[in-house]
Amino acid sequence: MRFVPLFGVRVRHDYHGAATCGDLSCEPTPETLRLIARYRLRIREVPGGLTVLAALAADGQTPLVGLPRDELFAFHLRVRNADFALFTDLQELTCKTDPVFSNEALAASDRRTLDLTDRQSWNMEGFVVAPGDTKRQFSLAGNPLALDGDALKTPQAADFRLMPPAGTARITAYDAATKILTLQLGAAQPDLTVRYRVRPNRDRRFLADVELRYNQSMPAPGTSDAPFEIPFKVRAGRWAYYLVTDQKGDFSIVDTRSGTLSISFSAANRTTLNDFPDDPDPLASELSRQYPDLRRVRFLSDQAVPCSIATRSGIELRLGDQTLLRPLPNP
User: Fold this and answer.
1) CA pair distance 35, 29, nearest whole angstrom
2) Rounded to the nearest 5 degrees, what angle is found at the Cα of 98, between the Cα atoms of 97 and 102?
3) Separation between Cα atoms, residue 288 and residue 277, nearest integer Å
4) Which long-range contacts (CB under 8 A, 24 or more apart) does 145-149 make?
5) Can you tell me the distance from the alpha carbon of 85 to that of 79, in angstroms, rounded to the nearest whole number?
6) Distance separating alpha carbons of residues 152 and 160, to the nearest angstrom
7) How far apart are CA 33 and CA 40, in angstroms?
8) Do residues 312 and 263 lie in contact, with contact meaning Cβ atoms separated by under 8 Å?
């Protein structure tokens, strides 16, 4: 029986450049495994991702089992490299309460980069209204979030919704400290149900989820792997070198590589720690304790440098015009 690619998923990380990123694995959920079995599909793990394969019928062209549109394939992203957070910019990811990479908004022949979205979780609570009440306060059992899911915001009355039939009732106030919701009620008011956003019960073993809807963004079976991409950006930080010496003179750090990608260590960011101790710098403080009688100099790069697996081999330590050490190790 012949199998052809149905779709693929690959992790792309700027840290690795054009090379394969093996820092994450893409694991199918139990529901997806049942989906794979139902439609006689196969999963082939590849470096940096996976490919889902479909069996072909006897004609060698059509799938053996037809796959209807809108079926959902879900996967978990698991971190395999303990140092992943050290070189990855996770700011956009950590702003999500339940991050999901999705193809929902992609169209046919569109870009292959998955969108990072936020899965929404909601809670509903019902309240009994006594006859004749015109104003009531209800204490919520759950823990509401702001409507946009931002856990740092304090929920307001506008973040809650009354589910129909609500009559003429309306929410007038919410006290986040006591979780008390105040409502103005109408005549012959029916019992009420309120809906609000909550923090999802997220599985912290995984970095994020991937949800791929079998929609128009999917290629025809067997036409190509056409993998969807999950992109990650690198962190950037200023490089620091520390020199401990008994020599005098003008020491400097120089990147001999020319062009816009070179790193500069100007005199403005060169500090003689004997004259200007920097107590908040733990390494500077430690060197001061270990080598109080020696000259201690810190060289700080002028700009933040993006993390990269590629080694910069042109950085050297100089005394005046004389090269003392080359290449210096990358921080």
Assistant:
1) 10
2) 130
3) 8
4) 145/97, 145/196, 145/197, 145/198, 145/199, 146/197, 147/197, 149/96, 149/97, 149/118, 149/120, 149/197
5) 9
6) 17
7) 10
8) yes
Q: E strands, 140-259, where?
A: 161-162, 170-175, 180-184, 192-198, 208-213, 228-232, 236-237, 240-245, 251-255
What ranges in the chain are assigned the alpha helix state H? 30-38, 84-87, 91-94, 282-290
CB-CB neighbours of 56 under 10 Å: 17
**Structure-derived torsion over alpha carbons of residues 87, 90, 91, 94, reported in degrees to the nearest 10:** -150
Q: How far apart are CA 16 and CA 20, in angstroms?
A: 7
Question: 151 in helix, strand or coil?
Answer: coil
Q: Which of 28, 52, 32 has its CA nearest to residue 42?
A: 52
Q: Which amino acid is at 226?
A: A
CB of 52 closer than 8 Å to CB of 36: yes
Rounded distance between C-alpha atoms, residue 158 and residue 148, angstroms: 11
Nearest to 214 by CA among 111, 70, 101, 113: 70
pLDDT string in tens for the chain (331-residue length): 789 899 999 999 999 998 999 999 999 999 999 999 999 999 999 989 999 999 988 877 777 788 888 899 999 999 999 999 999 999 999 888 899 999 998 876 667 899 999 988 999 999 988 888 889 999 999 999 999 888 889 999 999 999 988 888 999 999 999 999 999 998 777 889 999 999 888 899 999 999 999 998 888 787 765 689 999 999 999 999 999 999 999 999 999 987 667 999 999 999 999 999 888 999 999 999 999 999 999 999 999 999 999 999 999 999 999 999 999 999 8
Tokens of 158: 């506008």
